[in-house]
Automatic annotation (TrEMBL):
InterPro entries associated with the record: UstE-like
Transmembrane spans: 6-28, 40-58, 78-98, 129-151, 171-187
One CC-aspect GO term: membrane
PANTHER family the UniProt entry points to: 3-OXO-5-ALPHA-STEROID 4-DEHYDROGENASE, 3-OXO-5-ALPHA-STEROID 4-DEHYDROGENASE (DUF1295)
Pfam families, A to Z: DUF1295 (PF06966)
Record keywords: Membrane, Transmembrane, Transmembrane helix
Name of the molecule in the record: DUF1295-domain-containing protein
Species whose genome carries this gene: Amanita thiersii Skay4041
Amino acid sequence: MASSNVPAGIAWPVQFCVFITLSTYVASLITSNVSHVDRLWTFLPTIYTAYYALLPLWPHSQPFYLFPYAPKALGHDIFRDFSPRAVLMLSLVVLWMFRLSYNTWRRGLFSLSDEDYRWAVLRTKVPPWFFQVVNISFIAITQNILLLMLALPSASAAILQPHDALSAFDYLLAGFALIVLGIEFTADNQQFAYHSYKHAYLAREKGSKSVQPYDANKQWPGSRLNWTPADAKRGFITRGLWAWSRHPNFACEQTFWWIITLFPLLARSPPNLPSPSPDMLLKAITHPSSHLKPLILHWFPEILHLIPAASLSLLFFSSTLFTESISKNKYYEAYSAYQQRVGMFLPKGTVEKALFIKLFKSDQEARRIDNLVWGNVENVKKMQ
């Protein structure tokens, strides 16, 4: 049974989160592999979201340890029916889970012997004792807490808001979420197709017959791009969606969870984003010293509901910096050019970088960057 000091609305999720945190940490010590949370990443937000979306199904007392239950303290109204909004959110999260699970499976990360390459790199950069500090504080504890937090918007919809019919905003957000998942799936497939081509090409160049030849027909639609030997030699993907964003999959991942966060906040009932009067906004703009603070206080309680998505974005930004430092160390000249030419997440950054190069770089330098990113590296050598 969860501690009575834990609020009823998060009693079981906290209990389950503590169990998973301890289990993954102990497993990392036993196996010397810290990717156990990575393997569970695809399932945990779905489990927590399902708990809230399906609250009427759970017993009021816990029959045995870890079994989901919904304390009576939540209130009888919550158990009378399901929240349509929470169920819709669960449906989208389940689709998200299928996409991520499929991508994780084909990358081989579900194998208990596989570990994210970034952890291996980090081990070489820090002392063993510090890596264990990172393991328990960030990998085990922080990540598991974050995965629980991602379900809190569904808790708001199921517990804090009336179970009203879906609104136009709900349908609009669901449509956006499906589009984002489709784009993310395409980005995943393009990256997988590229690496399949790259490994097949480089193996053939070395005379190896252990790798099957690349077959574009085996790839998903949208990822059958015209890869070239120059792409393989470059070492990283720069075509398709990756020509507009250095990490389109990461951008979509963050966007998806921001959309999930907005479901309860755009609803008609609290906790939703309040609509300050035009007079309040005008005064905050014209007299910020005296009226900006009241506006912030007006918004502050609901802004707290943005913390899960904001925390995820912070995690992605910091981890992407580390990921790119590895790529840049491996492909320094080409990846530096890629960073100069293409935005990290948003296509807007790519347009801005293109404009900057057009205005402030010489034509020769612009061609050099484009050749490094999309052309033939041999052409760059001829230009030098």
